[in-house]
Amino acid sequence: MTMEYNWNCGVCDHTNSKGTDICLNCNSSAFLSSGNIEKRKAMFINGNLIDDRNDKSFKAVAYEVKFTLWATKVSHGENEVARRFGQRFWYFGIIVVIISFLFALVLFTEDAAHRFFIQIFSLVPCFDVRSFCMGKTTYIDHIGTPAIRKNLVIRWFGVFLDLCAWYILLTI
Ligand SMILES: [Zn+2]
Predict the structure, then answer these.
(1) Please, are residues 127 and 90 in contact by the beta-carbon 8 Å criterion?
(2) Which residues contact 171 (CB under 8 A, 6 or more apart)?
(3) 62: region left, alpha or beta (phi > 0 left; psi from -120 to 50 alpha)
(4) Domain extents in the chain
(5) Of 52, 81, 90, 140, which has the fewest beta carbons less than 10 angstroms from its beta carbon?
(6) Which helix (H) or strand (E) is 144 found in, with range?
């Protein structure tokens, strides 16, 4: 678990290079809460030694920070893998509906036609998944949720519902 950019230590203000998560100057973790920073500042000024190198709780916080950062980047359309997935998922959804249409044409049964008309609606959640991956506004029942930090959880929940709806509409 390391920082991906140069960072300033909250305790001693030393500038640390990326690729580290423990301050080179004072051994403080890069993932301290503001309360902990205040406590350590007092320790540092009083000359007490700090050592976060083997503290597992900071590692857990570090992973949480990293995970939230990853989830935010995906939701904001800044993750290249997710963007590619969203685009391909949309194309795949279209192809599935086209195949369903061809089946309806060839079979020419009421059942096949019925299936095709239901499957057209799968394009709605499918497009929403693409919007999510591209960092565009997603919709749950006409209520738009733009890609901003406070919508992170609702956007992830929305994309989960989209995937469920998409699957159900195709397999109904
Ligand atoms: Zn420091």
Answers:
(1) yes
(2) none
(3) alpha
(4) 7-54, 77-171
(5) 81
(6) strand 143-145
Show Cβ contacts of residue 112 under 8 Å, excluding neighbours closer than 6 positions. 103, 104
Determine the distance separating the centroid of ligand 1 and the alpha carbon of 90, expressed in angstroms. Answer: 47
User: Comparing C-alpha atoms, which of 18, 4, 158, 134 is closest to residue 73?
Assistant: 134
Asked whether the beta carbons of 41 and 34 are under 8 A apart, the reply is no
Cα 110 to ligand 1 centroid, rounded to whole Å: 72
Rounded to two decimals, what is the model's pTM?
0.74
DSSP state of 60: H
- Give CA–CA dist 24/112, Å, rounded: 67
Distance 149 CA to ligand 1 centre (A): 29
How far does the centroid of ligand 1 lie from the alpha carbon of residue 25, in Å? 5
Distance between CA atoms of 20 and 22, rounded to whole angstroms? 6
CA 66 to ligand 1 centroid distance, Å: 20
pLDDT in tens, 25-56: 888 999 888 888 998 888 888 888 888 887 77
- pLDDT, tens digit, 9 for 90 and up, residues 108-130: 899 999 999 999 999 999 999 99
